[in-house]
Amino acid sequence: MNRVDYLRISLIDRCNFRCQYCMPEGTELDYILKQNLLTNEELLTLIKEVFIPVGFTRFRLTGGEPLLRPHIVELVAAISALPETKDLSMTSNGFLLASLAQSLYDAGLRRINISLDSLNPDRFNSIIGNRGRSQWQNVWNGIQEAYRVGFDPLKLNVVVIPGVNDSEILDLAALTIEKQWHVRFIEFMPIGNNELFTGQGWIPSEELRQQIRSCWGLTESQVCGAGPADIFKIPGAKGTLGFISQMSECFCDKCNRMRLSADGWLRPCLLNETGQLDLKTALREGVSMTTLREQLKELLTVKSEINFKQRYSGTATGNYSRTMSQIGG
Ligand code: SAM
Ligand code: SF4
Predict the structure, then answer these.
(1) Residue 275 neighbours by CB distance under 10 Å
(2) Sorting pLDDT into bands at 50, 70 and 90, what band is 329?
(3) Of the candidates 316, 308, 321, which has an alpha carbon nearest to the alpha carbon of residue 270?
(4) pLDDT digits (tens, 9 = 90+) for 86-132
(5) Which residues fall within 8 angstroms of residue 253, CB to CB, at 6 or more apart?
(6) In whole numbers, what is the pLDDT of the chain averaged over residues?
């Protein structure tokens, strides 16, 4: 079994966007009540007393939109100051990043992934479910500011949806030529919007690579914190291209992560809704840290028995009770 040392921490299930593939309009989402969110203090206790002693040293802050979490800069500073923290990163939609990038960097954050599904402001607007003013420019400003401040690697996440943004693959890939940006194409998963998934399906990463290869060529490459992505490079480009192919190539045997939801549920796998631990309740009921560490070790053994293919089993739709924004994608 792989060493599991990486925890994705959802800080909040709310978001200022409603991306079609994640929180489609019309979906009723039961937001976590404020009193049920793990507090910063509880989160830090769990990291220090439970996760680190069991071997977790790498943490990613996500959501919902993590930059909506009150006191986010202080939280980043506290986690990055722990001597055992080897790596701290964040996944954000970038909307609030222009004003926060410098403070986050100063607090110790060095790696950030920003979602950017389109370079076309109108299309972007429709993807994020905003019928008002386009938010694309704010996100673009956030990306530029994160780059200026020195985030490295700076990764741009693109969920590829046929008929929505697949016409932009080459334009998005071209961003890596002049700047040291790392564009990652993610296969659309049947979590969050089954209707869109069933209607449009998903595009295998290899098809995208073929497009890019026939335009510029493609060589294998590497980037820090690549996780499950296969990394390539346009010859001579400053940045890289990553392909996250959880639909076409099951990479469960390489998985090194667990996910903690904003209300303290620890799930061993993105798609596993059984065998989770309710760490918030345990903490509030005074369960000892020794017991929690033992329960976490036990959960690590369950993790190796589940895999994406078993859960997904090749059908076009899945039936998951939580969206990516709730799980912490
Ligand atoms: N709000 C932040 C953002 O959008 O980057 C962080 C949370 S979001 C749930 C984390 C990642 O999950 C994003 O890169 C998003 O594109 C991805 N995601 C959400 N729903 C997805 C789906 N159905 N299939 C594939 N990726 C998805
Ligand atoms: Fe919000 Fe991120 Fe989900 Fe989009 S993908 S709705 S930005 S949580």
Answers:
(1) 16
(2) low
(3) 308
(4) 999 999 999 999 999 999 999 999 999 999 999 999 999 999 987 66
(5) 2, 307
(6) 89
Atom nearest to 157 CA in ligand 1: 14
For residues 262 and 12, the answer to whether their CB atoms sit within 8 Å is yes
At the topology level, CATH places domain 6-327 in TIM Barrel (3.20.20)
Sign of CA dihedral 39, 42, 44, 46: negative
Dist. CA 64 → ligand 1 center (Å): 9
Determine whether the shortest distance from the Cβ of 190 to ligand 1 is under 6 A.
no
**Ligand 1 pocket, residue 65 CB under 6 Å:** yes
Q: pLDDT value at position 282?
A: 97
pTM: 0.93
**DSSP result, 214-255:** HHH--EE---TT-TT-EEEE-TT-SSEEEEE-TTTS--GGG-
Mutating to test ligand 1, I would choose from 97, 186, 326 the residue with most ligand atoms within 8 A of its C-beta, which is: 186
Burial class (CB in 10 A: 0-12, 13-18, 19+), 57: middle
Tell the burial category of 9 from Cβ atoms under 10 Å away from its Cβ (0-12, 13-18, 19+).
buried
Residue in 15, 68, 188, 326 to alter for ligand 2 test, most ligand atoms within 8 A of Cβ: 15
Residue 253 in this model has a pLDDT that exceeds 90: no
Q: Ligand 2, atom 8: nearest CA belongs to which residue?
A: 64
**Residue entry with tokens 């769990």:** 46
Q: What does the domain layout of the chain look like in residue ranges?
A: 6-327
Report the separation in Å between the CA atom of 53 and the middle of ligand 2, taken as the mean of its atom positions: 32
User: Does the Cβ of 135 fall within 6 Å of ligand 1?
Assistant: no
